[in-house]
Amino acid sequence: MTSPLRVAVLGASGRMGRAACAAVDDADDLELVARIGSSDSLDQVADAGAQVIVDLTVPSATQGNVLWAIEHGIHAVVGTTGWDDESRGAVRSALEKNPGIGVLIAPNFAIGAVLTMRFAEIAARYYESAEIIEMHHPDKLDAPSGTAQHTAAAIARGRADAGLGPIPDATEKDPDGARGALVEGVRVHAVRQRGLLAHEVVQFGGTGEQLILRHDSFDRVSFMPGVLLGVREVASHPGLTIGLDGYMDLG
């Protein structure tokens, strides 16, 4: 019988962290060996013999946590946002020195959100216009969301593959930024409102028609199947993977 995979959750006292701890606890093939809060030493992770960390902390801490894990030969599944080219580059450099380690940075762990991004890339080939509206709770620290940025990049790839030019927009004056952020050539509008959790609407427009893709997470348990997928697969994917779709057979 195969021994359970030993997992440590960083950010265990947060809402996502608590949900991840419960999901790992409930999985027969996984063992939760460490619950790490903001004041706890990462040495507890190594002392517990963790093979994988799940990082659900804050943007200011996540890069250091992942670099520490790589240096200690521990795989990392990361749901914390705020990553940029520089921080991802630091992870790639660290992984070059530890080629057997896998790191997954997932903008969104909800399976439906991952599918929405893939569908958006396919649809982008066929529509002149595209915009994204992402809606989250007001305690979220960054905007636009990592999911929206990942979706915008997917749309940009789809448009590039189809040879499409810039999305048409005749706006000349927008002193208050009403048109939203421009991400990969796609307008992204961020809503922060009490009562929301994590929601995304992707709107495509063509002559005489509109296509709307929408995904809603109403509870953090919606992210747990993706978290567990990442934990189970990360060791089989050495190097850095951006997006849960890298572990899914989506064509």
What does this structure look like?
The protein has 7 helices and 11 strands. It has 251 residues and is of the alpha/beta class. The protein has 2 domains: 5-105 and 221-247, 3-Layer(aba) Sandwich (Rossmann fold); 111-218, Dihydrodipicolinate Reductase, domain 2, CATH 3.30.360.10. The strands form 2 sheets. Strands 2-1-3-4-5-11 form a 6-stranded parallel β-sheet, with helices on both faces. The protein has a 5-stranded mixed β-sheet with strand order 7-8-6-9-10. Strand 3, helix 3 (59-71) and strand 4 form a beta-alpha-beta unit. The two termini are 33 Å apart. The model has no long low-confidence stretch (mean pLDDT 95).
C-alpha end-to-end distance? 33 Å
H/E element string? EHEHEHEHEHEHEEEEHE
Q: Which bin fits the share of residues in helices?
A: 25-40%
**Radius of gyration, in angstroms, nearest whole number:** 19 Å
Number of strands: 11
What's the CATH architecture name of the largest domain? 3-Layer(aba) Sandwich
Q: What is the CATH class of the largest domain?
A: Alpha Beta
- Might you state the CATH topology name of the largest domain? Rossmann fold
Biggest sheet, strands in spatial order? 2-1-3-4-5-11
In percent, how much strand structure appears in the residues? 25-35%
- What is the average per-residue confidence, as pLDDT, rounded to a whole number? 95
- Give the biggest beta sheet: 6 strands, parallel
Stretches where pLDDT falls below 50 for ≥5 residues? none
Determine the CATH superfamily of the largest domain. NAD(P)-binding Rossmann-like Domain
What's the number of helices? 7
Number of folding domains?
2
Which structural class is indicated by helix and strand composition?
alpha/beta
